[in-house]
Specification:
By secondary structure, the chain is of the alpha/beta class. It folds into two domains: about 5-170 and about 215-240, NAD(P)-binding Rossmann-like Domain (Rossmann fold); about 175-215 and about 245-285 and about 290-315, UDP-galactose 4-epimerase, domain 1, CATH 3.90.25. It contains eleven helices and 14 strands. Helix 2 runs parallel beside helix 4 (about 90-110) and helix 6 (about 190-200) runs parallel beside helix 8 (about 250-260). The structure holds nicotinamide-adenine-dinucleotide and serine. Serine (SER) binds near residues 119, 144 and 186.
Length: about 325
């Protein structure tokens, strides 16, 4: 029998593809079971150690993997993101809420800790847009946001009612170069780097002045692992902490990329659905609770993220001469 003690659901997505190797580097390869409703492609980092096919909406599949691998901690990443959630609101509710409910029930049975990524999408148009407080109005207008607020509350409930060690972060949009994003509103901030390297041209679906919180993946991975290792006695706001690293607009990102890719052009063809979602989210959140309660500090800003993304993608992608 394997001795793994950490389960990652939705492990083949943008975050899981990098979180699984990061957890394995920290805890050992056999200590981390990657799982997803999909099968890993050949060469996928998540498929290089223990892997289980798990649909998080099926409690028996979850229970089996937790029992078999003696799982102590679940990083529950499986979910539909904001733009896909607007295309398929019913599926988003079933996966995001149905999956979390079953993960929490299995965690209650087996005494597992649970990490749940919430999002800036848990806020809405009536939330203060600048220096968004940790505790504030949360009336999101997307199905994604509705599930994120309900998830934060459900995790609070399982902690206060059953003593479960639930913890969470309101992640900003994530920028990364390993796995593509899964259909969110902030995907532009990843795609733009690929197109800058390939074509020196990008067509952006958000207005140039749309300000949002973004974060480079290495900071997000560190935040998740640091939160799960933090002293529980210090955590007042368990589910979920505001988290911030940088806030910028597409125009500001394009200008930063242009410093490395002269002549880089961006055109704007606005997608009304994703623009409306972005307009309903804060410009920049206040993450002082995370800083005070568990010592959160970002390491990457716009300049270092841009430099590193371009370096990594240039080493991998064909470039336009
Ligand atoms: P993603 O879309 O890239 O990956 C999600 C994974 O979940 C996919 O591999 C998919 O196959 C899997 N999945 C879907 N339905 C499933 C099911 N029923 N059972 C098991 N697996 C299933 O998403 P991501 O970007 O890796 O995000 C992971 C989590 O982090 C989500 O909760 C998301 O809301 C949150 N988050 C992400 C970002 C971001 O910018 N990526 C920002 C804030 C919060
Ligand atoms: N990146 C995510 C999205 O746009 C934020 O939660 O859906």
């Amino acid at each position: 029998m394997a001795t793994a003690s950490i389960l990652v659901t939705g492990a083949l997505g943008q975050i899981g593809t990098e979180l699984v190797p990061a957890l394995r580097a920290r805890h050992g390869e056999s200590a981390v079971v990657a799982s997803d409703v999909r099968s890993p492609r050949a060469g996928s980092p998540a498929g290089e150690g223990p892997f289980a096919h798990v649909d998080c909406t099926h409690i028996r599949e979850l229970d089996n993997v937790v029992r078999r691998h003696r799982v102590a901690t679940v990083y529950h990443l499986a979910a539909l993101l904001s733009a896909v959630g607007e295309e398929k609101p019913r599926v988003a509710w079933e996966v995001n809420m149905g999956g979390l409910y079953r993960v929490l029930e299995v965690a209650r049975t087996h005494g597992c800790a649970v990490f749940l990524p919430s999002s800036i999408g848990a806020f809405g148009p009536s939330t203060p847009a600048r220096a968004t407080p940790q505790v504030t109005v949360q009336r999101p207008t997307t199905m994604y946001g509705v599930t994120k607020v309900a998830s934060e509350l459900l995790c609070d409930y399982y902690h206060s009612r059953f003593g479960l060690d639930t913890r969470g972060l309101r992640l900003p949009g994530l920028i990364s170069h390993v796995a593509p994003p899964g259909g969110g509103t902030t995907d532009y901030a990843v795609e733009i780097f690929y197109e800058a390297v390939r074509q020196r041209r990008y067509i952006c679906y958000l207005r140039p002045d749309t300000c949002l919180d973004l974060m480079y993946m290495p900071d997000a991975l560190r935040a998740m692992m640091e939160l799960m290792e933090a002293d529980p006695a210090r955590l007042v706001h368990r589910n979920a902490f505001n988290l911030s690293a940088m806030a910028f607009t597409p125009a500001q990102l394009a200008a930063e990329i242009r410093r490395h890719v002269p002549g880089f052009e961006v055109d704007y063809e606005i997608d009304p659905v994703r623009q409306a979602i972005a307009d309903s989210w804060p410009d920049a959140v206040d993450d002082s609770a995370a800083r005070d309660e568990w010592g959160w500090k970002p390491e990457h800003d716009l300049a270092s993220t841009t430099r590193d993304m371009l370096e990594k993608l240039r080493a991998r992608l064909p470039t336009r001469s």
